[in-house]
Write a structure and sequence with these properties.
Layout lengths: L6 E2 L21 E7 L8 E7 L2 E2 L1 H8 L3 E8 L2 E11 L4 E4 L1 H4 L4 E5 L6 E10 L4 E5 L9 E2 L10 E6 L9 E14 L2 E7 L11 E4 L3 E10 L6 E5 H12 L8 E2 L2 E5 L7 E6 L4 H5 L6 E5 L2 E2 L3 H9 L6 E8 L2 E8 L1 E2 L3
C-alpha cells in the first residue's frame, strides 16, 4: 500500500522491519478495580484489570490472547502476513484488515492456544474501510469481548497484540495510551491514535482496553514518526463486519481524484500535488498548485482533513470547492465519483 500523509498503511503485507515488539508484564500485587462504564453512556460498571502500577498487561493478555490469530496469505501477487481477532467463535468468524488478505486467496490462521494452522475462507472485505472477515471451521475457537470505541477517551490505557514482524511463537504485546481520536490517515477517517508500538504484522490485530475489551483494529503507523499508530474503531469495524457477513455490498466511497499535502508555509488548506486523469477533480478544473481551503463551507486545515471531508460524502454528491490559485480564491463545482477498490 502507498504511504499517504506519512502514514504506512500496509502493515500486514510486505517486508518485515523496524523495532521488535516486546511482550511486557507489570509487576506487583494484582488488584481489581471498577469504573463507571463510559461506552454508550448506559451506566453500570466495567471490570478493569489493574495492578498497583496501573493496567495489568498480563491479566489483559490472558483474557484476549486465546482469540488472537496469526494470518498467513499466499497468492499470485505474493505473500503476506498479519493478525486477526476471533469475534464469533460459534460461526468461526475472524476480523482483520482488508490489506492483510489482498495479496492472495490461500489463507491460513493459527491460534496461540493450539498452534494448529487452519485454512480460512474470505467471507468478504470492504477495501474502502480496510476491514475483512474470515471464516474457519473449528470447535476450539475462543472469541474476544468487543468493547465500544464510542466510550474511549484520550489518556485511556491500551494494549496492542499481534504478529509483529512475523515472529514465530506467541504474539507480541505492547502497551500505551489512546493518544488521539478522529484522525484521518490516507482514505481512512475517524481513526484512533495510540502510542502503543505497532509494527508490520500487527495489522488486523486488537487494540484492547484495561477491561480486556477490543476497542480497535490496529491498521497503520506514521512512517516518519515514533509511536504514532492508528486503529479502526471497533464500532465501525463491527458494523462493517455485520454487513459483510450479511452479504450486503460494501458502502461506496466518494472520490475526488487528487493527491495533496499540507502547505510549506503553514497556510491552511490542502495543496494539490497531482490531479489524476479522468477524475472529478480534472473535470472540474482543479490544477496542481491549487490550495483547497473549503468544501461546501467546511474549512480544510490540511491534507488529512480534506480526505475526511470527501469521505463524509457519497459518490454522486455535488460539492462546492474553494481553492486559492495565484493568490485568488476560486470556486469549483465538483460531482464526486466512486472510489474503486
Amino acid at each position: 500500500m502507498a504511504a499517504l500523509a506519512a502514514a504506512a498503511i500496509a502493515l500486514g503485507a510486505g517486508g518485515v522491519g523496524g523495532a521488535i515488539g516486546v511482550r511486557t508484564a507489570e509487576h506487583g500485587a494484582s488488584q481489581t478495580a471498577t469504573a463507571t462504564t463510559k461506552a454508550g453512556g448506559t451506566g453500570g460498571t466495567t471490570r478493569i484489570i489493574t495492578t498497583g502500577n496501573g493496567i495489568d498487561v498480563k491479566g489483559v493478555l490472558a483474557k484476549v490472547e486465546p482469540a488472537v490469530v496469526d494470518i498467513q496469505v499466499r497468492g499470485a501477487r505474493g505473500t503476506g502476513e498479519g493478525t486477526g481477532i476471533v469475534y464469533n467463535a460459534a460461526q468461526g468468524l475472524i476480523l482483520t484488515n482488508a490489506h492483510v488478505v489482498e495479496v492472495g486467496n490461500q489463507i491460513t490462521v493459527t491460534t496461540p492456544t493450539d498452534k494448529q494452522a487452519r485454512t480460512a475462507t474470505l467471507v468478504g472485505a470492504d477495501a474502502a474501510h480496510d476491514v475483512a472477515v474470515l471464516k474457519v471451521d473449528a470447535a476450539s475457537l475462543v472469541a474476544a469481548e468487543l468493547g465500544q470505541s464510542s466510550g474511549v477517551e484520550v489518556g485511556d490505557d491500551v494494549v496492542a497484540i499481534g504478529n509483529a514482524l512475523g515472529l514465530r511463537g506467541d504474539p507480541s504485546v505492547t502497551r500505551g495510551i489512546i493518544s488521539g481520536l478522529g484522525r484521518s490517515i490516507g482514505d481512512l477517517t475517524g481513526m484512533i491514535q495510540t502510542d502503543a508500538a505497532i509494527n508490520p504484522g500487527n495489522s488486523g490485530g486488537p487494540l484492547v482496553n484495561a477491561a480486556g475489551q477490543v476497542v480497535g483494529i490496529n491498521t497503520a503507523i506514521a512512517g516518519q514518526a515514533q509511536n504514532i499508530g492508528f486503529a479502526i474503531p471497533i464500532d465501525l469495524a463491527r458494523s462493517i463486519a455485520d454487513r459483510v457477513v450479511g452479504g450486503q455490498p460494501a458502502q461506496a466511497a466518494a472520490f475526488l481524484g487528487v493527491a495533496t499535502m499540507d502547505s510549506d508555509d503553514g497556510s491552511p488548506g490542502a495543496v494539490v500535488q497531482e490531479v489524476s486523469t479522468a477524475t472529478p477533480a480534472e473535470a472540474a478544473g482543479l490544477k496542481v498548485g491549487d490550495r483547497i481551503i473549503s468544501i461546501d463551507g467546511t474549512l480544510i486545515p490540511g491534507s488529512a482533513e480534506l480526505r475526511g471531508v470527501v469521505q463524509a460524502h457519497k459518490p454522486g454528491d455535488t460539492v462546492k470547492i474553494v481553492a486559492v490559485r495565484g493568490g485568488t480564491e476560486q470556486t469549483f463545482t465538483v460531482k464526486l465519483g466512486e472510489r474503486q477498490s
